[in-house]
Amino acid sequence: MPPPGSPGSSAGPASATGEAVAVAADQAAAGWRGWGAVGAVALGIFCLITSELLPVGLLTPVGADLGVSDGTAGLMVTVPGLIAGFCAPLVTVGAGRLDRRWVLVVLIALMAVANLVAALAPGFGVLLAARLLVGVSVGGFWAIAGGLAVRLVPAHHVGRATALVFGGVPTASVLGVPAGTLLGELGGWRFAFAAVGGLGLLTLAALLLLLPPLPPTRTITFAQLPALLRRNRAVRAGVAVTFLLVTGQFAAYTFVRPILQDVSGVNAAYVSTLLLGYGVAGVAGNFLAGARDPYRTLFTVGASLAVILALLATVPGPVAGTVLLLAWGLVYGGVSVSLQSWMIKAAPDDAEAASSLMVAMFNLAIAAGALAGGLAVDGISVPAAPWAGAALMALAAVTVRVTSTSRAATRAVTGGGEAPAPGATPTGGLAEARDASPVDRR
Fold first, then answer.
1. How far are the Cα atoms of 4, 12, 13, 16, 19 from residue 8, in angstroms, in the given order?
2. What is the mean pLDDT of the chain?
3. In total, how many domains does the chain have?
4. Tell me: the pLDDT tens digits for 211-238?
5. What is the pTM of this model?
6. Residue 366 forms part of a structural domain
7. Which of 68, 270, 370, 383 could bond 78 through an S-S bridge, CB–CB 3.0 to 4.6 Å?
8. What is the 3-state composition of the chain as percent helix, strand, coil, each rounded to the nearest 5?
9. Which domain range does residue 342 map to?
C-alpha cells in the first residue's frame, strides 16, 4: 500500500495537512508545558528567597517573643545565608548524576517543612535550626534552577525564560519581605512563617505537576571552580563586587525596621507599608537595569547607595526616611540582574560555573552582612548598620571602576566575547541540553 500522500494514496494532501496540524498542536502543548515548568521553577526561586529574607521584617517581634536582642535575631538571616553559600557549589557538584526534577522537589519540600517547624518553634534554638535547613534548600535550588530554562523551552525563548526564572530573586527580595512583614503584623510572626511554608507546599505540587524529568546532561567538578577564578580576572572581580554590594546591602537592610523606627522616627504601624513601597521601587529598578551595561550600572548602584545609606543614618524625620527608603529600593533593584550579566560577559563559555560562584558569594554575603550589621547594632548603635553598609557600597563602586578601566579585565571580557557563543545560553552554555529535553524533542 502506498504511503499517505504518495501518488497512489487516497490520503493525499488532506492527510499531510492533518499531520501538520497535529504536529503544530503537539508543539503548542509542549510549549505550554514548558512555560508552566518555567513558572513553577520561578515560583520556587521566589518562595525560597522570600523564606531566606523573611526575618528581615520580623526581627523585632521575634526577638521580643523569644527573648533575644535584634542583633541575635539577625542570626536568622546570617545562618541560612552562610549555609546557602556553601551548598550552592556542593549541591551543583553532588547532584551531577541525579534527575534535576527530583532534586528540586526534595529541596523545596525541605524548605516548606523548615518553615512550618519555625512557625511552631518553642525557642530561638529550634528556630535557628530550622533556618539552617532553609539555607540548604536555597543554595542548592538556586544554583541548579539557573541552568534549566534551556531544557524547558525552545531555543528562541531561552532568554525570556531565564529572565523569568531569575526574576524570582529580585522580586522576592523586594516584595517577599514586605508581604511577610504585613502577614506578621496581621497574624503574628509565626503566622508569617507558616504562610511561607504553605507557599512551599503549593510550589512542591506545581513542580511535581509541571516539571518534566530532567536527567543530568553535564556535570561540574570542584576543580573547575577555583580554576576559573585563577585564570579569569573579570570573574574574580565580579565575585568581589558581589561580596561588597550584597554585604553592604544586608548590613543595613537586615535592620531596616529598627533604622526606620529609631533613626527616622517612623511609626511602627507604617513599616510594612513603607517596605511595600521599597519593593515596588525595587521591581522598577530591576527592569531599568536589565538591558544596561552591568559595569556602569553597578558603579552607579554602589556610589548611589553609599550616599543614600549615609543619609539614612544621619538625617532624621519620617519624610526623609521614606524618600531615602524608596530611593534605596529603586537603586538596589538592579543588582541581581546586573551581577548575572557581569558573569555572563566575564565568562561566556563557563557561565554556569561563574554563576555558581556568584550564587555562592551572594548568599555568603547575605550572611556576612547580617552578621556585620548585628555586631554594629549591638556593639555601637542602630545607625552604625547603615554606616557600615555605606562604606562597603563605596568600596564596591571603587572596585567596579578599577575593573572596568583595567586593560587586563577588559581583555578578559572581550576575549571571551560580549555575548554567549553561538549555541550557548545565558545560563551556562548548556545548548546540548535541549537535545535531552522532553519538551524540546516534541
1. 8, 9, 12, 14, 18
2. 79
3. 2
4. 998 887 666 777 878 888 888 888 899 9
5. 0.71
6. yes
7. 370
8. 80, 0, 20
9. 221-417
Question: What span, in angstroms and rounded, lies between the C-alpha atoms of 214 and 232?
Answer: 31
pLDDT digits (tens, 9 = 90+) for 129-146: 999 999 999 988 877 876
CATH number, residue 128? 1.20.1250.20
Residue 199 forms part of a structural domain: yes
Give domain status of residue 348, yes or no.
Answer: yes
Residues 6+ apart with CB under 8 A from 379: none
Check if the beta carbon of residue 39 is closer than 8 Å to that of residue 100: no
Nearest one of 174, 192, 176, 182 to 65, comparing CA atoms: 192
Distance between terminal CA atoms of the chain?
A: 28
Q: Cell 548602584 sits at which residue?
A: 301
Indicate whether 174 and 56 sit together in one domain.
yes
pLDDT the model gives residue 433: 37
CA distances from 327 to 178, 285, 335, 387 (A): 16, 10, 14, 16
Is pLDDT of 117 > 90?
yes
**Which of 256, 247, 67, 259 lies closest to 180 in space, CA to CA?**
256
Say if residue 377 is in the same domain as residue 332. Answer: yes
Instruction: Pick left, alpha or beta for residue 153 (phi over 0 → left; psi -120 to 50 → alpha; otherwise beta).
Output: beta
